[in-house]
Amino acid sequence: MCRAMRRPGEERDGLLLQCKGAAAAAAAWWASAWLLPSTVTAFATFTALLALQSTVYRSLWDSAQYLGAMALGTAGAAAFGSTAGVHVWSVGVLAFIALIGARFQLLGRQGAQVPVVALFAFAGGGGDVDYIGHLVAAAAIGVCCGLAAHFAVAPSPHTDTAEQMTTDLAARAQSLLRALARMAERETAEEKSQEDWARRIEQLAARAAQVRAAVDREQENSRLNPRRPWCRAEESLHRCHEAIDMIERLGTHIRSVARALTHARRVPETETVLTSYANLLHGAADALECLHPPQGPEDADRLRGHIEDAMHRYREVTATVRQDRLDTPGEWPVYGAALTEAVRILEEIEHTGDRAPGQCRSG
Asked: Which CATH number fits domain 159-355: 3.20.20, 1.10.10, 1.10.287, 1.20.58?
């Protein structure tokens, strides 16, 4: 509660949704009590709460699915009520048919409401057509009250929050690159086992999944939201998705680099090569910092310079490996993998920079 009152965010949106739910339920009860029999008043209140989801788009979609489920359920109840009547066998047959209708994919998770509505209208209302009509009207009132509350005070867009989370995720990837560089430089403070690096990279992947889920929620929140034009939010959130994709791929390359460096550090003769390779990783980290995902590079020429400088360091490391005769069949799989993954990291950064608004292109 305190966090919701202090600053905007999911906590405040959740509290606002609860307040809107209470208001919509009260309005639905009042309207249904005024217009319809008391036997269906509770149904209007329930439907108002069901129509209120976390986003306007989700509320509209769930409401449409629910009304479709209700149409199937009430149609079955009316058909059996006007022909077979309410009996043990007819309740069983209706339930069986309604459960089949619940499997329609278009109804989504609201498909479960088909047998609920059918049995409620059939057994609870005796299959009476007038009762079923009142039930449908109550549901319509509830949906209208729920959607009206949502559109009156739409959820706040948090596109800036999604961008900040993506920026922080990129900073984590950059930190891992610099930590690997310090490891290659043989700084004892950065000595870690292969299991430690695997754990850190898994943490990066888990955080990427969390950020992706947050961006997906914001994409849904932006659709049909009267508080933010979708066309403007779409571009920003699309860049967030591209940045997350890139960082997840970088995590795969970083894992391979960490595995290769863990092996290479055991060989004393590789100190010169690892020092040069550390400079290559620092150059990749500089390029990632300059890329500044998801907004894109502020200075396209500067990003291009970082990538070209890193590629120059890559050629230096390759020459050093050959000069020190570390490209033998026993050693090259280690250094070849490390060099290949470093180039792929640079290619990922360059490719993302090419697609950024600034369209940085390397010559």
From this structure: 1.20.58
